[in-house]
Amino acid sequence: MRKVGVVLAAAFAVSGGAYAATDAEAAKLGKELTPVGAEKGANKDGSIPAWAGTEAPNAGWSYGKSRAEFWKHHDDKALYSIDAGNVDKYAEKLSPGQIQLLKQSKGYKMEVYPSRRTCGNPDFVVENTKKNATSAKLGPDGWSLKEATVPGVPFPIPKSGTEVMWNAKMKYAGVGFEFPTLHTALSPRQGGSEWIDATSTQTYFFPWGKKGSTQLSSLPPVEYFTFFSYKSPTALAGQSLAITNFLDKTNEVFYYFPGQRRVRRMPTYAYDAPQIGFENQYTMDEPRMFNGTIERFDWKLVGKKELIVGYNAFGMYDPKVGFNDVAKNEGLSSANRRYETHRVWVVEATVKPGVRHVAPKRTFYIDEDSWAIVVAEDYDAQGKLWKVREGFVIPVYETGSCDNPAFVQHNLIDNRYLVDQSSLGGGKDMRWFVEASDPKLKEGFYTSENLRAISER
Length: 457
Description:
Number of strands: 23
CATH class: Mainly Beta
Distance between the termini: 55 Å
Helix content: 10-25%
Strand order of the largest sheet: 13-16-17-18-19
Structural class: alpha+beta
CATH topology: outer membrane lipoprotein receptor (LolB), chain A
CATH superfamily: Lipoprotein localisation LolA/LolB/LppX
Number of domains: 1
Order of helices and strands: HHEHEHEEEHEEEEEEEEHEEEEEEEEEEH
Largest sheet: 5 strands, mixed, barrel
Signal peptide: 1-20
Mean pLDDT: 94
Number of helices: 7
Keywords: Signal
Oligomer: single chain
Shape: globular
Pfam families: DUF1329
Protein name: Outer membrane lipoprotein-sorting protein
InterPro entries: DUF1329
């Protein structure tokens, strides 16, 4: 693994501090580096091509039409397949979690395609990112985000793991997105056949995502708002949540319980608290690959490496397939998981002294082009590799950027997996918004009073 900023990375792993990039470093953006800080050139063997700019969909796409069919490279064929029989051959470009998953999961494989660097950003995000390179700031606590020009990548030339994680959290995804129908599904226990398959509707709202150029400090200190309401199963149907994830403190959660006909504030429903209804397999900080505030960990920037990751994986967002046709007991169909080789930042998270967490050590792999977390690994209290999450990046035609809400989490000890944040099998495609025209894209929608009003209908 190539080390990046070794001296600085070591210092910031302890202090959590931050230094802005120098003018000389910032001048590399758009030249040796892409406008958001990735290496512009190809890798040595050509398996990762040079970045050539944002790719638009083929002419004629509009919401409701197949995203995959309008992608320029939809006729690509797989170059090779990785499974338990040949995993050692490709181990250098796989993470420890991916290797173990391949070795222990019968029939599991990864189909690897030509690498397509399709991720870009609109001009206003590019311009804001350029400003951020020398001006974005963390808070005096060393972990919160205090200032940036938004929407834009806060730290395109990162000097610490904390900065890389904020880049992942603040990647541009418009002002929000919604799932008309979302499956959050957990595979059966070993020897069993009964799935937990919860369906819901969900909306995300990013108050800093409005087109243009705004100082983060002039806005409410919010990373995002989200609302979801369960449709099934019976045990969860009617339960609804409104969550505010802050930039500088623990989230605020209001939960509506239909049996009680009341909204309750959930002050401890954060971090490693298990999500209701999923048999302790899914914690509050696991959605979106990492969710919530980052203050419980020290973040070490390890460096960069080439990794085979879920990319241009439109099959993970196909609303027209049958969910049960894709989600099998042994894993999601390989036909819906597309992999490519890309460069990633590697960040190690270690729980801070005096703080408890069910996963005291974690490793995150963040795509250099999109700043999306593409692989995450959790270790248990005994230091044993426990969970591996894979996110699946796609170009988002509405926003002109990339996003990766869909992910799969494998529990390597219990041999169970969970899939969430995907329009897979939902019947209707998820949708990204660049204008805050919907009532759900307003701060007032996420109050306890409004949650009670809309839930009691």
